[in-house]
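Quick one, tokens below:
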């Protein structure tokens, strides 16, 4: 089914500026939810679906809202992969990759290494009394942990973080910047070489990693498929835990009463994680393409229509989350959309939950005494396809 690159008949057309979306997409999303919950946005080249209930409905209809979108930026960046596949290929690829990321495996195989890495990174900065917790802690932590889970012993945390940044820039390159495409291409070539080397090693000596799991999957997975799916995992596997960590730490430091409660009652760290992911979703949207005519949000979309499920907007839908723009760990529980839903529920969600809420936040706030923000103007939220803090400059009382 060819992708349609124009608005569906009868769909509202809304002009949105991409720079304004990067700075703060939430006012635009609120307007869309009120006035045009499904709207064609020319600057994005697709219809944006912005209400919670409509997004959940679409996620449950994978046979209609297909992940196989022609010309998607992710396909251009990394090649054919499980995120842009439907069943049965999606099930085969995910079945090969997922086992090492399940809760029990995270606890039994990776938790000890995750904790050691966190302590090592904190050891580097503890005596300084100041740091950028994104660049100096959260990003290298997420990257090192991901290298471990993937089995990429031949890549450093700096390699993983740099590759992730380059590919995620490509995956949100709606402005079609050629320099961004060049950096993404360099990153993907480097990943392909690293994965090929490890795949050959674990074919002889399985090690429980994601690459090893895919090499030895019950249903065969080709080397090119392993390479492309490792690219996808490196993208989300760095930016999601990094950005949830940063936004959550920033929110707590701006709400010291909440922070003191959480420190006194550590079981609340889990609530902080879920509320942070809802409040500022690290992944803001993902694309779908209709396999047949279908009506949603009052608009009949023809087959081939391109749609973005704007989960960041769904997570701020006032009909579901009262005072949705506020950070509130005590809000009544409603499932958020930050990790997607249906067959494409984020494979790395349990890894991110453990490394951030069980380890990173508790360790940082325990070891760095009298931690406080410096109010550096460089620290700001950025992005709409992916959103997080650019930096998080803090000071503390060094020993």
């Amino acid at each position: 089914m060819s992708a349609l690159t124009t608005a569906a008949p009868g769909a509202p057309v809304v002009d949105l500026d991409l720079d304004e979306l990067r700075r703060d997409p939430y006012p635009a999303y609120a307007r869309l939810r009120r006035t045009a919950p499904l709207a064609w946005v020319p600057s994005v080249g697709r219809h944006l679906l912005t209400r919670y209930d409509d997004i959940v409905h679409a996620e449950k209809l994978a046979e209609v809202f297909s992940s196989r979108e022609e010309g998607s930026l992710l396909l251009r960046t990394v090649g054919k992969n499980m995120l842009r596949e439907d069943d049965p290929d999606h099930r085969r690829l995910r079945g090969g990759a997922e086992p090492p990321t399940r809760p029990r495996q995270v606890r039994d195989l990776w938790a000890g290494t995750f904790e050691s890495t966190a302590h090592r990174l904190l050891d580097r900065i503890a005596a300084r009394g100041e740091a950028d917790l994104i660049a100096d802690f959260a990003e290298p932590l997420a990257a090192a942990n991901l290298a471990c889970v993937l089995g990429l012993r031949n890549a450093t945390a700096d390699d993983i973080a740099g590759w992730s940044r380059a590919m995620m820039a490509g995956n949100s390159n709606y402005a079609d910047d050629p320099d961004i495409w060049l950096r993404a291409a360099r990153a993907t070539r480097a990943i392909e070489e690293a994965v090929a080397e490890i795949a050959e090693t674990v074919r002889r000596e399985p090690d429980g990693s994601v690459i090893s799991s895919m090499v030895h999957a019950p249903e065969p997975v080709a080397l090119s498929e392993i390479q492309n799916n490792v690219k996808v995992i490196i993208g989300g596997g760095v930016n999601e835990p990094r950005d949830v960590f940063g936004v959550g730490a920033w929110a707590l430091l701006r709400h010291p009463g909440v922070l003191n409660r959480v420190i006194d009652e550590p079981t609340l760290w889990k609530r902080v994680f879920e509320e942070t992911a809802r409040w500022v979703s690290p992944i803001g949207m993902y694309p779908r393409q209709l396999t047949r005519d279908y009506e949603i949000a009052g608009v009949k979309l023809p087959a081939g229509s391109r749609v973005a499920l704007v989960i960041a907007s769904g997570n701020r839908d006032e009909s579901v989350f009262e005072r949705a723009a506020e950070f509130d760990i005590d809000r009544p529980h409603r499932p958020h959309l930050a990790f997607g839903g249906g067959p494409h529920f984020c494979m790395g969600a349990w890894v991110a939950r453990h490394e951030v809420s069980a380890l990173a936040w508790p360790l940082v706030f325990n070891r760095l005494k009298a931690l406080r923000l410096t109010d550096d103007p460089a620290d700001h939220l950025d992005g709409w396809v992916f959103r997080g803090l650019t930096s998080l400059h803090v000071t503390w009382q060094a020993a």
